[in-house]
């Protein structure tokens, strides 16, 4: 499965009021492993930043003045995202801005050009009801190192989101690109006659069975009821 972790920075909070995207960061993952293929754009919003926004992301009007406008990078961005599941924290915010930019170019809505959209904020609220579920809060709760995040940055935040997502979905504890792994490598395996072994059957205690069912229930809840073993039993 191909997933793209996406984040944007903007001139303000409302695309309906004319605020624009000034930065897009995208990080690719295939089958839950980072590929090292990323996209990152700074964008000239053709309008001034709000002062409050600059305090958050640090991208000044002067810095953005010579950057390309969204229309210039739209093809490259959308070709990279096409067909992938896009993972965003608080997706309504970023998708609202992306849709506004695409409307200006008379292009289809964002959701029509990608394979799907996953909102990690919605996932976190289901898993941690009543708690703070900002990206910073999730990094602290899930022990993801965000010590370099003094200012918001789209590519940095997309990378943190990828780490948070893996831990939210409990597939693995960290993201790693292992260049030493290759499908072409041949591994020699010594043949063993298993018929020579007598296998012991361990019978779980009642307490162990209860603990096992508790873990299965937690996994089922974390996946939103998508675990396969429940369906197979049914």
Looking at this protein, list some descriptive labels:
234 residues, alpha/beta, Nucleotidyltransferase, domain 5, 2 domains, 10 helices, 5 strands, 16% strand, elongated
In short:
By secondary structure, the chain is an alpha/beta fold. It has two domains: 2-168, Nucleotidyltransferase, domain 5, CATH 3.30.420; 194-233, no CATH class. The chain contains ten helices and five strands; from the N terminus they run E-E-E-H-H-H-E-H-H-E-H-H-H-H-H.
Describe this entry's structure for a reader.
The protein has ten helices and five strands; from the N terminus they run E-E-E-H-H-H-E-H-H-E-H-H-H-H-H. Strands 3-2-1-4-5 form a five-stranded mixed β-sheet, sandwiched between helices. The protein has 234 residues and is α/β, with parallel strands linked by helices. It folds into two domains: 2-168, Ribonuclease H-like superfamily/Ribonuclease H (Nucleotidyltransferase, domain 5, 2-Layer Sandwich), CATH 3.30.420.10; 194-233, no CATH class. The two termini are 27 Å apart. It is elongated, with a radius of gyration of 22 Å.
Question: How do the strands and helices of this protein lay out in sequence?
Answer:
Elements (H helix, E strand, L loop, with lengths): L1 E9 L10 E10 L2 E10 L8 H7 L3 H4 L5 H12 L3 E4 L2 H14 L5 H4 L2 E4 H8 L7 H7 L12 H15 L37 H17 L5 H6 L1
Parallel strand pairs: 1-4, 4-5
Antiparallel strand pairs: 1-2, 2-3
